[in-house]
Amino acid sequence: MNPAVGQAIEIVRLKVSPENVTKFLEGRMKVDEFVHTIAGHIGTELVQLSEDTWLMIIRWRDKESVLAAQKITEQATVISDWLGSTSQFVSFENATVGYVSK
């Protein structure tokens, strides 16, 4: 079985005005320094869907890791400051990877 199957992911949709994109991406680097220290974090992808819509996919080892991380990150000012100064939160979902194609 593929090791990615069973990973937990967070899917976050954000609005970022074109004039904030550079600050948004630079700020994410600082957030990643923090998030990489949390047990179970695998990686984060930022996908630009349109001029002002971004999708953030955060990968975790398993559901337990993502739940523990959410308790840590909800109090992290590095994350709330970054989001508050660069983007507008649209939606947030949790999911589990069920199939990976190669």
Short account of what is shown:
The protein is an alpha+beta fold and 102 residues long. The protein is built from three helices and four strands; from the N terminus they run βαββααβ.
Ordered list of secondary-structure elements with their pairings:
Blueprint: E1 8-15, H1 21-35, E2 41-48, E3 53-60, H2 63-73, H3 77-86, E4 88-96
Antiparallel strand pairs: 1-3, 1-4, 2-3
Please, could you describe this protein's structure?
With 102 residues, the protein is of the alpha+beta class. Helices cover 35% and strands 32% of the residues. Strands 2-3-1-4 form a four-stranded antiparallel beta sheet. It is globular, with a radius of gyration of 14 Å. The model has no long low-confidence stretch (mean pLDDT 94).
Please tell me the overall pLDDT: 94
Question: How many beta-strand runs?
Answer: 4
Report the C-alpha radius of gyration, rounded. 14 Å
Order of helices and strands: EHEEHHE
Biggest pleated-sheet summary: 4 strands, antiparallel
Instruction: Give the strand order of the largest sheet, numbering strands 1, 2, ... along the chain.
Output: 2-3-1-4
- Outline: globular
Report the sheet-strand fraction. Answer: 25-35%
Number of helices: 3
Alpha-beta classification:
alpha+beta
Poorly predicted residue ranges: none
Euclidean distance between termini CA atoms: 12 Å
Query: Approximately how much helix is present in the residues?
Result: 25-40%
Based on the model shown, name its key terms.
102 residues, alpha+beta, 4-stranded antiparallel β-sheet, 4 strands, 35% helix
